[in-house]
Amino acid sequence: MDLFDKAYAFTEAKEAIAAGFYPYFIPLTENEGSEALYKGHRLIMCGSNNYLGLTTDPRVREAAIAAIHRYGTSCTGSRFLNGTLEMHEQLEHELAEFVGKEAALVFSTGMQVNLGAISALVGRGDYVILDKEDHASIVDAAKLSYGETKRFGHQDMEELERVLSRLPEDRGKLVVVDGLYSMEGDIAPLPVMAPLCKKYGARLMVDDAHAIGVLGGGRGTAAYYDMTDQVDLIMSTFSKSFASLGGFIAGDEPVIHYIKHHARSMIFSASIPPSNAAAALASLKIMRDEPERVEHLCKIADHMRKGYRELGFNIGNSTTPIIPVIIGEKMLTIYVWKRLFDEGVFVNPVLSPGVQPGRELLRTSYMATHTFEQMDRVLSVFEKVGKETGLI
Is the pLDDT of residue 355 over 90? Predict the structure, then answer.
């Protein structure tokens, strides 16, 4: 058997492209934050993770440009060797302070944070315990570690306790969950989870990729519940509210120091370019100085959840700016996506294995720079397409 046989036999995506129903890798001509342009077709962007709308903020742009003028376009080396700038360490200090931890460590991408931190901490004989809806980067990190992976049903705290209770007391244990789940917009029940971890001697790590800039006044899930001291590790990305690229993990200084010297995904990767570090720093300053952005984002999200429910759409248990429109059938999900796209609304179709079979959905997400006029237009389009397709 030729190793490439599977590639030559893979035709599903090309068939979808030929039929005009391929929803991925769409090359946008422009992306202005709340709106985008595709081949002259203007769309209201409801499929971005740009929650605070900072990618086009002049202050963030100017900070990135100034960093390029001063440092050039790349550090051309890993943080471990020649790729650390004073700016990286300044960013780490400010991030740690922002999320309420002793220290932070910046990686080149959010996925590398999880791959490096989890695999560094979880060794032979240890256990890593995951929610079944955890992000793929967490699942892959567990596979990379030498520990044993256990899983529990999504948000099922009774099953989490059963899993923890069956593990040896003398083994290391790390529970890793998303703070804000990226597909259906629900929030991890940390007030129940943290005491369970303490009871069974497990450490708790929260992936706040989608929660920083959204929950807890922008400081994340632990701040949302006012229990930062009960979460051992907090990670997040720069590719969402920070309007950049990269990521970080924060926690007790000795733990971050250990990860810094053992995380292969950081040691063997080039550091984030000066422009990305500067953009993240500028975004962080805006988060601190302008809490009204988070407040407006919450109002937009409230408006959309109310609107979808009044129209009769199934939006699950979302309480955040990530609002799923659950359809539950693959081809209908793709068709509704295409009709919305044609009508000028950009959303993301999510199919199995991104969600469980029968849970196929349109992922919509909102940003602080959306206007209520834009949102009412989106609801109008959803109403039109929903009635056409029998969803409502």
Answer: no
